[in-house]
């Protein structure tokens, strides 16, 4: 089976989809799927699109005999032409497009229609209510001009959680929806045991973007101000939002508590997780929130909001899942930062078990393969697929 995956950006600073799309393709390769990634931007070190550096994509040239290739394109204008060329060269069974709104997404839909190739679309949270309201006029225009039509041409949609699937239905999209979470690699553990009297670390690791709720975190931390704790903020600045956050930190008198470390990846990211006692994602909206799964995989308990689909933090007793806003976050911070290290460590171990059972890449890839097989009439309807 050959599947072409299309995504606008595979650069690490672009966020979770760059990581999860490459991870999915890597996992699918062990299951008789030849995966070709077509992208407009691939700026990882050495041209690699894989966080684990398992593959060495060809730039511009996708050799038919290769099971993986990344295509760095100079402009969106050429995307459609190159995609059609590679479809004709590789004769794909399916086109799997990731994201919405961009020229690359429209090109994928047009190409699938012209070449009569089944199309599956993973919106990647871009139709969640908060995301749709952000820069709403542009999205409303795109929705009317092409995006709604492109989605309705898809044979199937992929959501990463029931919450996202429900929001897709509320947009009037009635085609089948596969609900399959993202996966995460499981790092080698255990961590080294933390010193009892060291400064304890609360970690935020994501894009520095208004959606992520950092201003809420600053105000909640100002209210709680737990002794012996510091906050590390890791991730790339987007749209100059870091300046707003730094200003709020200064006004709250927390300059000595918050530390920015910029974009981290690979071993540096692993080191950050392993050195943290608590992970915080005070987001307004996530279709999944892969950093939550990453933190749990590193045995770090998590505080996040009901803007992310992580009720499992409560059922598996590995974190806090709270309403969006300063007061609910402050209450969770007050409780979490007063717990002994051993209690937080126990929560982290339960989180690791939760991730291992539900979000390992082998199982995720098997679910996606079963969806592809159903699309091609080669298998029964999988349990993760909803057709009503």
UniProtKB/TrEMBL annotation:
InterPro entries: Glyco_trans_1, Glyco_trans_4-like_N. GO terms for molecular function: glycosyltransferase activity. GO terms for biological process: carbohydrate derivative metabolic process. It comes from the Bacteria. Residues 15-183 form the Glycosyltransferase subfamily 4-like N-terminal domain. Residues 197-352 form the Glycosyl transferase family domain. This is Glycosyltransferase.
């Amino acid at each position: 089976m050959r599947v072409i995956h299309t995504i606008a950006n595979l650069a690490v600073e672009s966020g979770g989809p760059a990581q999860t799309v490459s991870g999915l393709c890597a996992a699918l390769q062990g299951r008789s799927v030849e995966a070709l990634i077509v992208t407009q931007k691939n700026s990882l070190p050495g041209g690699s699109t894989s966080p684990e550096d398992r593959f060495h994509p060809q730039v511009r040239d996708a050799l038919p005999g290769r099971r993986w290739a990344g295509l760095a394109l100079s402009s969106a204008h050429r995307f459609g032409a190159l995609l059609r060329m590679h479809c004709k060269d590789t004769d794909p069974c399916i086109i799997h497009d990731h994201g919405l709104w961009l020229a690359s997404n429209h090109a994928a839909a047009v190409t699938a229609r012209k070449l009569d190739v089944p199309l599956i679309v993973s919106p990647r949270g871009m139709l969640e209510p908060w995301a749709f309201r952000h820069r709403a006029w542009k999205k409303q225009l795109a929705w009317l001009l092409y995006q709604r039509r492109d989605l309705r041409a898809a044979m199937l949609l992929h959501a990463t959680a029931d919450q996202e699937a429900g929001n897709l239905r509320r947009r009037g999209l009635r085609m089948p929806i596969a609900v399959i979470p993202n996966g995460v690699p499981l790092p080698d553990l255990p961590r080294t045991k933390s010193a009892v009297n060291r400064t304890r670390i609360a970690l935020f690791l994501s894009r520095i973007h208004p959606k992520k709720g950092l201003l809420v975190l600053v105000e909640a931390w100002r209210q709680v101000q737990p002794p012996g704790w510091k906050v590390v903020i890791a991730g790339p600045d987007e749209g100059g939002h870091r300046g707003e956050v730094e200003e709020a930190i200064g006004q709250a008198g927390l300059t000595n508590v918050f530390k920015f470390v910029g974009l981290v990846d690979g071993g540096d990211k692993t080191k950050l997780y392993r050195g943290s006692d608590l992970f915080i994602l005070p987001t307004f909206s996530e279709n999944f929130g892969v950093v939550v799964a990453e933190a749990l995989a590193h045995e770090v308990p998590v505080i996040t909001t009901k803007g992310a689909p992580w009720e499992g933090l409560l059922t598996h007793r590995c974190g806090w899942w709270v309403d969006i806003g300063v007061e609910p976050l402050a209450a969770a911070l007050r409780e979490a930062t007063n717990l002994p290290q051993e209690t937080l460590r126990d929560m982290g171990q339960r989180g690791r078990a939760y991730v291992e059972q539900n979000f390992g890449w082998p199982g995720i890839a098997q679910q996606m393969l079963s969806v592809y097989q159903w699309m091609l009439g080669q298998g029964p309807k999988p349990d993760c697929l909803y057709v009503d």
